[in-house]
Amino acid sequence: MRLVVAADVRGPRNYHVGDEAMLEANLRALRQIAPDLEFTVLSGDPESTGRFYRTGSLATPCIPQGHTAGSWTRRMVEAGSPCAWAEWMGEEITAAVRASSGLFVSGGGNMSATWPERLLERVALIELASEAGLPAVVSGQTLGPALTPDQRQLLSRAFPKLRWLGVRDAESAALAHDLGVAPGLIHRQIDDAFFLEALPVTDTRADFLGEKSGRWIAVTLDASFAAPERAPSLAALASQLDALAGSLDARLVFVPHVGGEDAGDGASDAVAGRALAAQLHASMAVLDPWQPREVRWLMDRVALVVSTRYHPLVFASAAATPAFGIWTDEYTRIKLRGALAPAGLEGWCVPIAHAGRGGFLPLALELWRCRDAVRERLVRLRAEARSWEAGRWEGISRVLGLTPGTGLAEESPQPPAISIAPCAPLPFRAPRLLTGEQWSRYERDGYLRLGRLLDARWEGGSVCPQLLFDLLGRDLLREICARVYGAQTNISVLIEEREGQSDWQHLAGMTGHLDRDPLVTLWVALEPSTRANGCLEVIPGTHSPGLPATAEAARQVPGDAIESLELEAGEAVLLHNRLLRRGSATRALSVSYMDARTLNILTGQRFPIVFGEYVDDMPFLRGILEDNRRLRESAEEAARYAASLLEDTQRRERMRCEAEQYAKSLEDERAKLRVPARRFGRSRRATSPASPIP
Predict the structure, then answer these.
(1) Would you give the DSSP letter of residue 435?
(2) Distance CA 241, CA 261 (A)
(3) Which residues contact 583 (CB under 8 A, 6 or more apart)?
(4) What is the pLDDT of residues 212-238, one digit of tens each?
(5) Which of 136, 284, 366, 691 could crosslink 252 through cysteines, CB 3.0-4.6 Å?
């Protein structure tokens, strides 16, 4: 039997550790299941790929000259036939697919608008396999989130023909269902390379580990951090890494995941590593790209991992090493949080905007403080994941006909969907986090119980920075803000700890120092709150326009219209900011979610952003600040010029004094010379002979 395998690998001259790791892990697993199985791997460098993995290999297709990615995608949408795909893929690949036993697409995140060529290649392979009546398996994917309409159309045609689709995160599962994949064929999984075995590095490349004793912090930044627009974030991150290394008495090592002669400065992580090293006060070892199993071995030997890339977090999780993710856009947010989610550690992942404002260091220190608990979770994850992985490969084997007694016929039973804890089993349709009925209740009453949002990890009623950040950035709250403010609105937060409020008041009336009122507030009980000890009370419906939301009006409301919100510690309720409420006497955390343009009118400052990026929407203020800067520069220049004039005047005054002194000295010298001259004249007249008489 032979499988055609698609993997985004391009050989050592354009090397991607993560893509190579997933391919290597999948080939090893398939060979263990069926030792005689042969492979044809599509590669950007068929010769090196075939030699390294001991497989057949064919070159990946390229978009034809004269076409852009968009125009070629449109053409394939319009063509819509297997013949068009076969013509583009070429005779060798088409023949290899038709002569194979099935198609296996290795894990990755390239079915996205960012990589249109790879998306087209995978659609073409699925269509060719389907035309030949062969099973197609897609493993370990992050799908989208960005797709053009034409790309969505192609995927929605191809994906329903799959026999197995493995996804690494909930967002990809929901997108797969939207693209028409049957729920029973969508399988949540850990990354393909999670169980890749470590390979010790015994040569001089690992000498740095023995140079000095102590801890090591592994850092991976993608190449974008070498770009000028990332310079402020890089500088802020460098200063925080310096402080982190000093606090932990640790040394830094930069571990690139993309590199090679053909990668170029725009893609090579080493460029970002050198830029970071130039900003650091501490020394940092910058490695060349290692083989995936070698990187996995290194993760066993470091104390902490900090990364903007996905697979360092996967390898760190597999090694039970605490890891911290920094995401730069929606795509990396989904991926990095997905890498940490199986162990429930996605809270240790923050946006670059937060890290660039100094938010990385306190959370990294908190992660280090919690390292033992984090390691316990990761060790438990690895033990549990072995059974999930065994079930996954059992199902894939049945689909591909690798298990004795099952064939490739359409009537062969489909394997059950596999879900990874702590996620709930994947439903037929991945629902939104709040149902339409819940939104209706909120719009009617002005509040909504959200259940327990703070868990037992929090101690003594105090919320550590990581738990607070995890709470503030929940996908549930992201969805709420998108519904209330609009999906494109950047969101900031005002965080307060409240205790005791005897009279009726709406939350909008308690934020007089803001230039605009927030619309929603998250209220989280930090201790049990009951009627007996004074829980939060609300008057449902008083948020509605036209109703008097005043304390005087509230006092006229009958008692049975007042609702007491009893909450256990850690439970939360969503409040409309114009809803009248009072209490509670117990400690609670109040988080107002606001339009990120909101200003504190007392200080002129904005508030921390949790969703989106800071955007300067006040060009007039920027203009005033620029004018002030120019005026300050002009004033400083004028002061320098005045000082130079004063200095010149003083110099000239000194020169005048010196000239006067010199003139006086000449006068004195002249006076001295006149006296002998007069004497000489008199004596000459006295001694001269009488003039002869003519």
Answers:
(1) -
(2) 29
(3) 500, 501, 534, 535, 536, 537
(4) 667 999 999 999 999 999 999 999 999
(5) 284
For residue 637, pLDDT beyond 60: yes
- What's the CA gap between 474 and 522, in Å, rounded? 12
- The answer to whether residue 619 scores a pLDDT higher than 70 is no
Cα–Cα distance, 303 to 320 (Å, whole number)? 10
* Pairwise CA distance, residues 492 & 315, whole Å: 33
| pLDDT tens by residue, 477-523 | 888 998 899 877 888 888 877 655 555 665 554 556 788 888 999 98
CA distance 260 to 45: 13
The structure tokens listed for 586 are 């117990």
Q: Which of 187, 184, 86, 71 is nearest to 127 (CA)?
A: 86
In Å, what is the CA distance from 232 to each residue of 112, 355, 368? 28, 11, 25
Cα 472 to the center of its chain, rounded Å: 16
The H or E element that residue 317 is part of is: helix 310-318
Residue for token digits 């400052």? 605
Which is nearest to 581 in space by CA: 503, 500, 517? 503
Mean pLDDT of 627-642: 86
Which amino acid belongs to residue 383? A
Half-sphere exposure of 414 (CA within 13 A, CB side): 16
Whole-angstrom distance, CA of residue 181 vs CA of residue 186: 7
For Cα atoms 662, 666, 670, give the angle at the middle one, nearest 5 degrees.
Answer: 170
d(CA 434, CA 658): 90
Backbone angles phi, psi at 318, to 5 degrees: -65, -30
- CA 325 to each of CA 179, 267, 319, 351: distance values in angstroms, whole numbers, following the listed order: 29, 19, 16, 8
Q: Which two tokens stand for residue 197?
A: 């075995």
| Nearest C-alpha neighbor of 315 from the set 282, 348, 285, 292 | 292
User: Is pLDDT of 458 > 50?
Assistant: yes
Decide the pairing of beta strands 15-16 and 258-259: antiparallel
**Global pTM value:** 0.73
| C-alpha span between 305 and 246 (Å, rounded) | 16
Spatial separation of the C-alpha atoms in residues 248 and 550, rounded to whole Å: 53
